[in-house]
Amino acid sequence: MATKIDVPGVALITGAASGIGRATAIAFAQAGCTKFALLDLNEGGLQETKGLVEQSVSATDISVGTYKCDVSSPESVVSAYTAAKEHFTRVDYSVHCAGIIVFGGPSADFPVEDFDRQNSINYRGLWLCCREAIKIMRSQPFDCEAYPDANISSVRAQRGAIVNISSGLALYAQPNCPAYCGAKAGVLALTRCDALDYVADRIRVNAILPGIIDSPMTNPSPEIRAWLESNPVQHTPMKRFGKPEEIADVAVFLAGNKASLVTGASWAVDGGLLAGYN
Ligand code: NAP
Predict the structure, then answer these.
(1) Are 216 and 143 in contact (CB under 8 A)?
(2) What domains appear along the chain, each with residue ranges and CATH number?
(3) What is the whole-number distance in angstroms between the Cα of residue 23 and the centre of ligand 1?
(4) Ligand 1 atom, smallest distance to 184 CA
(5) How far is CA 8 from CA 81, 143, 147, in A?
(6) Is the CB of 20 under 6 A from ligand 1?
(7) pLDDT tens digits, residue range 48-84?
(8) Contacts of 5 (CB under 8 A, 6+ apart)
(9) Model's pTM, two decimal places?
(10) Known catalytic residues?
């Protein structure tokens, strides 16, 4: 059971149809949130996540909105965030999990279309989501005013919090992944910039660097799965795949008021991978 979040606010999650995004939605529900805007391209997966969120807690007042959204399209992102804001009146937490990985080869062999596609989702798409989240958050009252029963002190009050899912590959390389690694490094720089630019608005922005997590992304084929298992996973001090829930729990913490002094940070959640290998 996840630690309770102080403010049971509105949680918006991209990439919510699968893996880390799905686990994040469930973790927010277990932490006490009751209002969800779930975004993804995959409508069937979104409905499954909605069902799992509703089943994961006994609360009867759970409200889950699903929004088909292509994060690479500015129109689609604006439309989904606008619809979520209209329905729920505010967005307290925006967690950006949507992403893809394409193993296109080293740079000289890497197709331009694959490079552009990864950037348009993993970096530009995430930025589009941050942009809409910030527009909503900066114009909404502090959470201590919107949720007086939560008894949030003025020091810990916030208008909203953003958690960007980057990757350990922002800081170390894996063969054949130049576009993915570059986009994920860009997410860290963007996180720091937004954290700085919106600190006075009391919007916190942080990034998580997952290690190797057991999700559909790390199961594209038996060959890639076997390579991950026998190579990078074995270089991880904990020598195991992480679980999506282990990323989700950190996302809930970073979004909540208990992390009120944390902004612009890059949190590794990777079984020790960035610390070194043994
Ligand atoms: P996942 O299970 O494949 O989930 C990614 C989700 O993003 C899927 O539901 C996917 O939909 C959706 N998506 C893809 N393109 C989209 C678009 N244009 N617009 C909206 N949604 C889109 O992978 P995951 O492991 O949970 O990954 C979540 C995040 O963690 C990603 O940003 C990933 O880069 C990052 N990450 C993962 C790992 C890992 O080991 N798994 C490690 C480090 C970082 P479809 O299924 O329809 O494509």
Answers:
(1) no
(2) 10-276 (3.40.50.720)
(3) 12
(4) 34
(5) 19, 10, 8
(6) yes
(7) 999 999 999 887 889 999 999 999 999 999 999 999 9
(8) 28, 31, 32, 33, 252, 255, 256, 257
(9) 0.98
(10) 180
